[in-house]
Amino acid sequence: MKYRLLAAGAVAATMGATSASADCGEVSITQMDWASARVVTAVAEFLMAQGYGCDVNVVPSSTVPALTSLAETGEPDILTEVWANSTPAYEGLLADGKLVELTHVLSDGGIEGWWIPQYLAESNPELTTWEGIMANPAAVGGKFHDCPSGWACDIINNNNLKAAGAEAGGLERFQHGSGETLQTSIAAAYADEAPWFGYYWAPTAVLGKYPMVQVEVPAYDAEAHTCNGSSDCATPGFSAYPVAKVVTAVSGTFAEEEPEVTELLRNLAFTNSQMGEILAWRLDNNASDEEAAVYFLTNYKDVWGSWLNDEAKGKLAAILN
Questions:
Q1: Other CB atoms closer than 10 Å to residue 260's CB: what's the count?
Q2: Which residues, including other chains, have CB under 8 Å from residue 104's CB and lie 6 or more apart?
Q3: What is the per-residue pLDDT across 88-102, written as a single tens digit (0 to 9) for each?
Q4: What is the rounded distance in angstroms from the CA atom of residue 97 to the CA atom of residue 76?
Q5: Please, are residues 59 and 73 in contact by the beta-carbon 8 Å criterion?
Q6: From residue 105, how far is each of 33, 41, 142, 266, 295 by CA, in Å?
Q7: pLDDT for 10
Q8: Residue 59: enclosing H or E segment and its boundaries?
Q9: Considering just the CA atoms, what is the radius of gyration of the chain in Å?
């Protein structure tokens, strides 16, 4: 209730700021269609409106449509949480000056990997390596919990498991029918402190709520990983996932016209631990994006306070204290 009331006040205050004279004018910002990106946008929207007097227009989108729009029209001004490694058009827009990269908004990068619960790592530390699991697959339940069919990780994990000889070593691949059942399997394991081993990614509410330890596998090999991404890969190789580059970027025009707001966005970044904790709170409280933003603004003042210039700090002094 506390955060719902604060969120309502924050939204009302933001609306008041955006309807008034705007120091920085009109600003358009993406609201990508996944949880962490929506939190980033909600936080940025509040700070831009309250601290910098911007008239903020939030544009629901996803990565490819947003980049296409920016290439063709120069808008939206701000793209939050672009997973650049998986977006071929991104580098070309940078080279053309249509897009300016500001920051790694997820400072640790996007993490994909194979995990065991923290309690299992503490009781059986040898299971934090692939060799340790293969020496005793029963200790992780004899099963690899995999992502659903149709996801990119489905093909990559299957080829990795083939390359590693998992089935011959006594480890069964168990493919979940949906992301929800994969998530539920982790929650169920935690409820009973049962063995669990499988694929997941961060930052997510699940890894924010249920501490997991990443299992050490062979280092990332670009050639092997590329082959593993194809269902026709003839010679799979065992390779870790690369760390994904996750950025905030703005149009070249916006960077020139709004240097103060650009500098704010250049500073705006979350560690995976911070974002995971926010998303876990959001999940547990069935909270909105705005409520999650208020939770962050309330509990991480020492983090976001350093993002602001002196004038914005003055405007936001009441909630910084």
A1: 16
A2: 245, 246, 247, 269
A3: 788 999 999 999 999
A4: 15
A5: no
A6: 16, 11, 37, 8, 18
A7: 54
A8: strand 55-60
A9: 22
